[in-house]
Design brief:
By secondary structure, the protein is α/β, with parallel strands linked by helices. About 45% of the residues lie in helices and about 15% in strands. The chain is built from 8 helices and 4 strands; from the N terminus they run H-H-H-E-E-H-H-H-H-E-E-H.
Length: about 160
């Protein structure tokens, strides 16, 4: 696990248990990340998007070299990101109509009640996806093991029964 991944894991854990940290992170994510040791240049803006049961956010990196560990933990998300990085036509279609693009890629339809939002990281804009639904509530044993096992809430694209 890289230093950056460890910091994201720490942020994820704090987001789940600390309402003040959540508010601070949501209002100034770049400052919080800088304080924790992830140096984000002044020229880069950070936007935070929240996954919920009905909204899933997908972030396309500038290149596959940027791909983080969250893609490895979700095969569907990884498949989408790799295809978008390798195929400009697919990326365009994904940005315009994500449900259709994903259905064509996987052969499976995306649930009607699920909204999918797609963002692209650039050299001046970094997107982070968090999952706060149920945060500040007591975590179950399984949820505690998930966080302790390194699954990050700073991840993207888990849906259709996939666990964070």
């Amino acid at each position: 696990m890289t230093k950056k991944s460890k910091i994201y894991q720490q942020v994820s854990e704090q987001l789940l248990i600390d309402k003040n940290f959540q508010e601070r992170f949501l209002s100034a994510p770049k400052s919080v990340l800088n304080e924790m040791g992830i140096n984000i240049p002044d020229s880069v803006q950070v936007e935070v998007h929240e996954d919920t049961a009905r909204i899933k956010n997908i972030v396309i990196p500038e290149s596959l070299l940027e791909e983080d560990e969250s893609t490895a933990s979700n095969p569907l998300y990884r498949q989408i990101v790799i295809k978008a990085c390798e195929d400009q036509n697919f990326k365009t279609q994904l940005m315009q109509n994500p449900k259709v693009a994903i259905a064509l890629l996987t052969g499976e339809s995306v649930p009607e009640d699920l909204e999918i939002r797609v963002y692209k990281n650039t050299s001046i804009l970094m997107h982070l996806v968090i999952y706060l639904e149920g945060a500040n509530e007591e975590l179950s044993e399984q949820e505690l093991e998930t966080v302790a096992g390194g699954k990050s809430v700073l991840s993207s694209g888990n849906w259709a029964g996939l666990v964070y």
